[in-house]
Amino acid sequence: MAKKAQKIVIDSKMCKGCHICISVCPHAVLEKANEVDNRGFFLPIVADLEACKVCRLCEMECPDFAIAVVSDE
Ligand code: SF4
Ligand code: SF4
């Protein structure tokens, strides 16, 4: 059975809004927030959790270990 993501957790203290995770995601799961956080960063947000295939590219490419995909596997 195909893996499904239960949630994607973005650590708002670790993330610096570089958007590498958005760029590497092959399924357009993530997008840029409309508003800056209290540090002035546009954090990624989960736009389409259902589309996530749990490939974990976002986790592997994040330079700050700030994103984690929780799956049902
Ligand atoms: S695990 Fe893969 S499909 Fe899911 S958000 Fe990360 S890069 Fe996209
Ligand atoms: S790659 Fe990591 S640090 Fe960059 S925006 Fe995504 S979660 Fe934040």
Please give a structural write-up.
With 73 residues, this protein is an alpha+beta fold. The chain has a single domain, classed as Alpha-Beta Plaits (2-Layer Sandwich), CATH 3.30.70.20. Helix content is 14%, strand content 23%. It has two helices and four strands; from the N terminus they run βαββαβ. It has helices spanning 20-24, 57-61; strands at residues 5-10, 30-32, 44-46, 67-71. The relative contact order is 0.37. The mean pLDDT is 96. The structure holds iron/sulfur cluster (2 copies).
Morphology: globular
Estimate what percentage of residues fall within beta strands: 15-25%
Strands of the biggest beta sheet: in what spatial order? 1-4
Number of helices: 2
Share of residues in helices: 10-25%
**Spans of at least 5 consecutive residues with low confidence:** none
Q: Give the radius of gyration.
A: 12 Å
- Following the backbone from N to C, one meets helices and strands in this order, namely EHEEHE
Query: CATH class, anyone?
Result: Alpha Beta
Task: Briefly summarize what is shown.
This protein has 2 helices and 4 strands; from the N terminus they run βαββαβ. The protein is of the alpha+beta class and 73 residues long.
Which short descriptors sum up this protein?
two-stranded antiparallel ribbon, 73 residues, single chain, binds iron/sulfur cluster
Secondary-structure map:
Blueprint: E1 5-10, H1 20-24, E2 30-32, E3 44-46, H2 57-61, E4 67-71
Antiparallel strand pairs: 1-4, 2-3
The structure holds iron/sulfur cluster (SF4) (2 copies).
